[in-house]
Structures are given as structure tokens and as C-alpha cells.
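anyone else get weird line breaks when pasting these?? whatever heres mine. first is seq + C-alpha cells for prot A
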Amino acid sequence: MNSDDCLIIIDVQNDFCPGGALAVPEGDAVVTVINSLARVFSHRILTQDWHPADHRSFASNHPGASVMQTAVLDYGPQVLWPDHCVQGSAGAEFHSGLETQGCEMIVRKGFRSEIDSYSAFYENDQHTSTGLAGCLRERGFQKLYLAGLATDFCVLYSALDGRKEGFEVYLIEDACRAIDLDGSLAVALDQMKRADIHLVQSAALLSRSS
């Protein structure tokens, strides 16, 4: 891959894989694909959900609320999730099969109790920055390739924000899996296409680099 290309690996953590607190169907299937891609990208960045136990996106912190219910918080609508990726827990750790050596940065998000963070670039108020965009620009990256979990939430918002920040963004479809909550995968793919985000398969990238 080119020196201005960066692979961003989103939230491949135990709680998003089978057996986890918020398991994405076939979430662990992305690990082998991402590991293959990691060998052809010189630059890789990881993101990691990193929630305190009292996080406001957890249904358990809203008496009487149900998991997957939508609540209106200070910054707008928020899906209430099961407790997941709690700081320091086994569920917050990266999947044991994921090859993380050689990654240049870990962006931790959602660590503020009062606000959730799907995107690798901004928290859900669309104002509080993670600092990732500035780092990528300073390093001279122009093309971002996204993989990980879940296509219709954290990957989607990261892709859209990457475009807003002026990067050329590629979604590696077979290196992602979706929650697909009430048809959210189809909606997410349509949003990305309309935002001029390129949908690609890992095989095309691997063959180009062979």
C-alpha cells in the first residue's frame, strides 16, 4: 500500500465478538481478514471502546429502561446498550487472535461517563474530538481504509466523519460485520455510498499488494 494509506481497525474487542456482552453476529470472522490486511499496510491504528461502569449509554444506568431502547440524552437520541467494554475488563480487551503488534496508535473512545462515542473522530455530540483527524493530517495520510465492528455503528460513523474531515475513505466490506438492528446495515451502506465512501473487498487490496 502507499505511504499515505492508513488501515483503521475499529473495536475488534471481546465484548463485540461471539460470547461477548454486545456480540456482533460473526464478529470474530473479521479477525483473519484483518490480520491478512495488516501485513500489507505499513500504517495501522486501532480504536477501542473504553467505558466507565457508570456510562450513560448503558441501559443499567437508566432505571426501568430496556436494552436497545432509545433514550434522549443531552446530545440527542442514544441507543441504550448492555454494559460492555468496561474499562479494564476482559470484554474491553482486543480479540486474542487479532495481531496488534506494529500498530501505531490506540484511540480510546467513550471514556467520558456522560457521552457515548461511536466514531473514531468525534463523540456523539459531533463536537468533542478524539484528536485522530489532526494526527492523521500531521502524518500526511490521505486514504483511510476501515475494518472492524460494527459496520452500521462505529464503522459507519467513523467513515462519515473521516469524509467530513477531508480524507478519502474506503470501507473494506468483508473485514466488517454489522449488528443490523431493524435494517440498520442497509441504511448504513446507503449513507456511505451517498457520502462518496468507496466499498471494497479485501481480496482486491491483497492482490494489488502481492
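and prot B, same format (seq, then C-alpha cells)
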Amino acid sequence: MMQTASIADNISDVLVKIIHFTQLRRRVLHENLHRADEPGFMPQDMPVREFAEALNVAVAEHLQNRRLLFHDTPHVTFGPRGMMEVRPVADPHAHALLGANRDDYTELQINKLLENCLNRRVAEELLRQKCGAYADAAGWGPGQSFTGDSSRGPSPADRDAAD
């Protein structure tokens, strides 16, 4: 199992990984909705519990030994310079729903998208508060939104800081 020490700012590194994971998961869930009519389509999801456990282990290591160490799992691989690869897994529950009740399948996918969006927004806000802007490590410049939606306006924290 590969072990990789991470960048010095441990909290930011964890948040960037959560944001990246939620972006990947959004793509997979979006595809589940758009490809549902294809014959033989098997819905997928990201290994959410596996990813959460990998982060829990890394944070526990940090608390105990003051270093952030990520351990690879069967579907999540960590590499140098903050690299992380996550492979989707089949979702047999969603597949069974797709065959039995299309409305329930669609509702499941939408609920997963909403949960994922909330997780991403919380991580983005925590990272913004920690760094003052979104980290370049995630592939965006300072102050850019991960959603590409600049119409949201200032956040409550931005308004509080201005007061």
C-alpha cells in the first residue's frame, strides 16, 4: 500500500481533496441521469465511504504524529504533489431501482447530487475561510468559484467581513 506525505498545510490539503472528490462524483451522478435510457447501462457512484475512511485515517495519523499521511485504498490512490485518483464503482442498488421504478431511481440520483453539492460547498467555504481564496492546488486561481457560477454574489462570510 502506497503512503504519501502531503503538503504542509494539512487542513487545506484535505479540503482540496474533498472538493476534487465531489467534482468527480458530480460527473458520475450526472452521467447516471443522462445514460439511464441506454440498454444495459449500469449506474455508478464514487466510493464515498472508502474515501471518507481514507481521510479519517489520514487525519488520525495527523493528530497522533503531526503528519498527514494518505493511504491508498482499492479505489482511491494518492500520489506525489497532492495527486489523487478515484475510480467509480458499480451501484447495484441504483441499478435495481432503475429496472423497478424509474421515478425512485431519478429521486435517488437527485438526492445524491444534492448531498454531494452540500459537501462541496461546505469544503469550499472552509477552504475560503482558511486561505482567503480557493487553492491553486485544485486547479483554480484565487477567488474563482468551483461551480463557474459567479452570479451567486458574496457569501454571508464575505458580507460579515465587509461590515
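btw re prot B: The longest helix spans residues 102-131. The chain has one domain: 3-162.
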